Every structure is written in structure tokens, then in C-alpha cells.
Amino acid sequence: MTQDPNADAQVAPTEVGANAAESGERQLTPEASDAYASHEVPGDRPHSVAELGHAASRLDPDAPAVLTVDNLKMYFPVRSSGVVRRTIGHVQAVDGISFEVPKGGSLGLVGESGCGKSTTGRLITRLYKPTGGSMMFEGNDLAKLSNKEMKPLRRDVQMIFQDPYTSLNPRHTVGTIVGAPLEVHKIVPKNQVLSRVQELLEVVGLNPEHYNRYPNEFSGGQRQRIGIARALTLNPKVLVADEPVSALDVSIQAQVVNLLQDIQREFDVAFLFIAHDLAIVRHFCPEIAVMYLGKIVEIGDRETIYSRPHHPYTQALLSAVPDVKQAAVGGRRERIRLEGDVPSPINPPSGCRFRTRCQFAQEICAKVEPPLLQIGKRHKVACHFAGELGAHPATPVTTELLGVDDQGSPVPGATPSNTQLTIPGYEKTWYDLHTKQTTGV
Ligand SMILES: Nc1ncnc2c1ncn2[C@@H]1O[C@H](COP(=O)(O)OP(=O)(O)OP(=O)(O)O)[C@@H](O)[C@H]1O
Ligand code: SF4
Ligand SMILES: [Mg+2]
């Protein structure tokens, strides 16, 4: 049985927050809603995001990081049953992940169910207090702050939840749901709350006159728009979107993704975008991190991840999606079937966590954890045998860096190199897999 040690820290980010001064610098305006209608039915047959969406979001390689996550960990204690409940283990839900979210950009987080995506989002919004690591945001380490110290920062990091049916209080009107944070945090004077709520409803493509209706009077897509309006209320700088469209019909998904793109452009808000749907992530996120059992196994720009993935898990994941299969595996190959179940995060495999399901696993994979190694300008991978599909090397590429032999045993006198193994962002130089030398631009 598991228990969350942070139960007392679980406060919805929109309900706690800043007593910060009025922010006049990033006012919300309804212009973003002009590009799409508030009606949800574009046609009879389902349309994909690629068909109905705006152009895919672009990468700005020079954008500074708004959020820097370094070696982040979340271990949930597992307690024994009975009167005296002892801690008998830990669920290693997130185990030492590092990444950057660029200002105004979006990082996608993908991976199978249970790999730690939502936990990562909940750590960033500080619904959970991390077991370890840091999350730097505007000079503050969100991981270390007390709940009281977090208050002024909560408005800056907000969350859009997956399920528009359960994330809105059915007993409150839309006006109350969207307006409450404005009142509680005195973002606008009381007599201006209604007009601001209406403005926000217009921003997300809803009829501003519907502020006095209840959630059950709206469709799924419209409810998700209400959730987005609520997340925007406090003018956040980072939005964690946890499966924001997966509960919606395909055609409506495109409209909501369009809305999120418009909002991102207009308000310069950065996204951590969590999703199962690799086609949607490809559209929305110029940069993508792939998680497996609490670890990031590969991270890179969209082009690299979808066209030249180097981790066997990413290759398998992409091969299962018809829409992206061609780019990922050259179009002619069959789906790569992953054998077995995902192991338990309470007792994960030694060395590489993917080894129990990996067709390339060798002795070294059980002995030594592969570091998340930068192998390109914007590409990191954690695999001893990293390589393009069909071109995985016969011998491990990490031995010299780690000071081990091909079986993973330490080489006497060898000096392991720590360079390029741990920083959250990208270095200007990287490890070239072919020459086994450091290279750069
Ligand atoms: N509060 C908690 N207490 C104990 N274990 C937890 C808790 N929350 C999550 N876990 C465990 O942590 C692991 C990661 O869960 P998480 O919800 O982050 O996965 P996910 O990648 O979001 O999955 P999904 O795609 O199904 O939403 C899972 O094994 C889950 O059972
Ligand atoms: S390190 Fe080994 S087990 Fe892990 S993905 Fe690479 S080849 Fe597979
Ligand atoms: Mg989840």
C-alpha cells in the first residue's frame, strides 16, 4: 500500500497563490480567440491535429530557460499494513530527471502509463514536494521552498488537467470557477472581476455571457476551455498541461491545441506538455523528452526524436504510431513489439531500467546505468548501444566515458569522465558516437 507523504502540500495551484501586486504587464485580451470559433463541431468525420491545426510550433534555439530541472526525484513511501505502519520501500516515480523548459517554448513529455509524467508535472507545480533535486525558476529553487514561500510563485506555474469532467466543481458557475483566483489573490478590484472573467472566456473562445452557467451545461471541449481560462487567470509564465486533450474527440482536440498555440504566442507562456499522443506532441512541441520508469531515456529536438531516435525504447514507441511511423522507422519496417510488462518502480531493474524489455540488452546493461549522454547539438540519449534503428553498435559506446570494459566491469586505473553527463540543458560540445571524441559546432 502506498501513501503520499505530501498530502498536506496538495493544494490546487489556482487556489493558493500569490498575494502579489497587480500585474499590468501581461494583460489577457480576447484577440487569441479570433482565429477559431467557439462552436465545437467542424464536421462529421474526425480530423487530426495535423489537418485542422495551426502550423507546428517552432523551436527557438536561443530562448533562455524559464525553468531548469536538475536531478529531480520523487520517491513515494510504501508502508506496511497493520497498526504500526512502517516504510517498507519506495515507489521511485521520478528518479533523477533533468531538463530545461525554454521561455515561451514547449517541452513535450511522453512515455507509457506509469512512467512518471504526471508526477513530474505535479512536482513542478509543487503539488508534491520533491524527494531530491532542484527546479530553478527566476532565481528560486521551487524544490526547496516552503509552502508559504511558494505562495507568491504559484501564480506563475499553473496546471491544465486532463479530465474536463472532474476537474471543474459541478456546483460552481463558470464565473465562480474562473473568477475565484482573481478575488482571492486580489488580482483585480472586486467590481472588475466579472468583466475580467468575461474577457478570459472570450480569450478561450467561449461566449462571455455564459459566465453564470454550470459545467454540466458545456461540452467536453468547452469544459476544457474553462479549465484553460482558469489556468490563465493568474497570468502564468509556465503551464503544465497534463494530457490536456486526450479526453476529447479528435476534431475538438485540434481546436484546443490551436487555442493553446494561440495562447502561447500571445502571452509568451512556456509549456510542459504531457501527452500519450505522439502526433499531437510532435505538432505542439519543438522539443521532446521520452520517459521510461522514472527516467528520461532520450531528449532532443522534434526532428531528431521523430526521424532519428537512438534509444530502443523511443524507436519502439514511435513504431507503434501509424501517423509518425514513417518518419521514425523509414516506413517499411513493422511495428516493434515490446515484450513483457513495465517493471515495478518499487524495485526497478539494475543498470538500465529498460533492459528487461530491450532486444539489444547485454551484460553491461544490467551492471551499469547508462548516462544521459549528449550525442548531438540538441540530442541526448541514455543507452550503452545508442544508434539509429538497424545501426546499433555491436560494442558499447559508453565504456571509455565510464571507465568500464564491454561487460561493464571497472577497468583498473581508468578515469571515468563526468563531462556532458549531467547538465539539464545542452552543451556546445557533445560526444560523437562514431569517433568517440568530443565534438561541437
Ligand atoms: N501519490 C502516489 N503515491 C504512490 N505512488 C504514486 C503516487 N502517484 C503516482 N504514483 C506511482 O508513480 C508512478 C508514476 O505515476 P504517474 O501518475 O506519474 O505516471 P504517468 O506517466 O502520468 O502515467 P499515465 O500515463 O497513466 O497518466 C506510478 O507507478 C504510480 O503508481
Ligand atoms: S542500455 Fe542496454 S538495455 Fe538499455 S536501452 Fe540500451 S541496449 Fe537496451
Ligand atoms: Mg499521468
Describe the structure.
It is a single chain. The chain has 441 residues and is an alpha/beta fold. It has two domains: 7-290, P-loop containing nucleotide triphosphate hydrolases (Rossmann fold, 3-Layer(aba) Sandwich); 315-440, no CATH class. It is built from 13 helices and 14 strands. An eight-stranded mixed β-sheet has the order 6-7-8-3-9-10-12-11, sandwiched between helices. Strands 2-1-4-5 form a four-stranded antiparallel β-sheet, covered by helices on one side. Helix 4 (174-184) packs across helix 5 (193-203), helix 4 (174-184) packs parallel to helix 6 (220-232) and helix 5 packs across helix 6 (220-232). The longest helix has 18 residues, at 250-267. It is globular. The structure holds adenosine-5'-triphosphate, iron/sulfur cluster and magnesium ion. Magnesium ion (MG) binds at residues 117-118.
The description of the largest β-sheet is:
8 strands, mixed
Query: How many whole angstroms does the radius of gyration measure?
Result: 23 Å
Ligand set: adenosine-5'-triphosphate, iron/sulfur cluster, magnesium ion
Low-confidence segments, given as residue ranges, are: 1-46
Shape: globular
Number of helices: 13
User: Total domains, how many?
Assistant: 2
> If you consult CATH, what is the topology of the largest domain?
Rossmann fold
**Estimated helix fraction:** 25-40%
CATH superfamily of the largest domain: P-loop containing nucleotide triphosphate hydrolases
Beginning-to-end CA distance, first to last residue:
51 Å
Indicate the proportion of strand residues: 15-25%
Nearest-integer average pLDDT = 84
From the 3D coordinates, which CATH architecture of the largest domain would you assign?
3-Layer(aba) Sandwich
Class from secondary-structure proportions? alpha/beta
